[in-house]
Amino acid sequence: MNRLPLFCDVAMARRIERVEAQLMAAATQAACLRRADRGGFVMRVAGGVATFAEDGSPFDKIAGLGFDGTPDAAVLDRIERAFAERGAPVQAEVSELADPAVGALLTDRGYWLASFENVLGLTLDGGYERVAFPGIEVRVGRDDEFEAWLDAVVEGFAHPDDQGVPSHEEFPRHVLANAERDFAAAGVVHYIALCDGTVAGGGSLRIADGVAQLTGAATAPAYRRRGVQTALLSARLADAAAAGCDIAVVTTQPGSKSQQNVQRRGFHLLYSRSVLVKQAPAEGAVNRRDASTTDHVTRKVRGPGTETPDALRVVQYDGSREKLRPLFELAEDSPTQLDGYIEDGRVLVALRGTDMVGHLQLVATDQPDIFEIKNMAVREDLQRTGVGKRLVDCAIDLVARESGRRLLVATAAADIGNLRFYQRQGFRMRTVERDAFTLRTGYEPGTVIEGIELRDRVWLDHLLDRPAPS
User: Where are the residues of the annotated region Disordered (predicted)?
Assistant: First the structure.
């Protein structure tokens, strides 16, 4: 069926931006219910919405501005304070069809242009027929298929096409998993694509106000160039048309393969959005990670994790722990002990450029408000340069924001350097565990550190101030 090019005026852009803002609000509210805490927020602002779901979430932004007047300065002050209190930057996504005064206002307030994204649309008037593709099955995913669906989508996102403008952000698996669950609670439907019976990709669909929002589509690299995305697109468009939608929209990176694919299916460029970012104050800043950084790291850890003048930054790590084993081994003399805990908890890594120069492993204990630094090390050529302090500061900030009350760490009594380091970071000695390092526990006898035999372990703790509730 031949379709006329879709012209987008201000009224249509207002409609699309309104449903986008509604989606961000609904997904953020779902995240708040899932987390059962008071950390998130939804604030209305000049026809749009400011939302914060959780650390590093794709829902942390301002959407829909510029179609109902300019934001009041006092309201923006309150929004910016709310993000800063959570150690996050403010990201405003503003349509080029919005009131130009909004862009001028934000740039005057210190926002800078970080990226663009394109919004494309297709008219569904008159219906849309589903097209069958040999060997490919597309259907709504079942609850028990969510993990397989997520694996395929995350793998696809982890290997983006190299065409067009690269994205300014990237999300690890656990963040995407949370976001997709929250999307489902907000009415987003997941579609799964199977190629010869194997999960090959996925996409999502949300319907609101006659607008079909196509989101989260990706194909595992092994199944690309087989028509998987075309099949996913066809199925979702057919279902959207059957549900009475008159327009379908999709957001892509400018000039990307994704944009090329949907344009081949009849979509037309409606408008672009400018992604404007204002950094949080230095005490609580967090920058979205450079998309070129490898090994599946998340957005920067908030608070002390902001980039320093020497280009050091701290991020959560979501890749293979084996890649970090050389760093772990700097702090652990027993291979047996290391094998037993290397996969535990979360890991923060210190990056200089794309080089990992240090790490800190943070694990939970049997008490929900007490956490432990299980392993921490800095590359030997960069020790005593502030990297370790940076990692500990970020761990303290992260634990405090998760309502942690106490942070523990254990080190050898023979390691005078470590004892000095942790006490300088505010830790105090708590107990001594005699004969902790023996052959029975996996340590070679006769090991000497700074002229002292490795025998006893010292436990230290740091009492944390909880952030004030918002």
Answer: 282-308
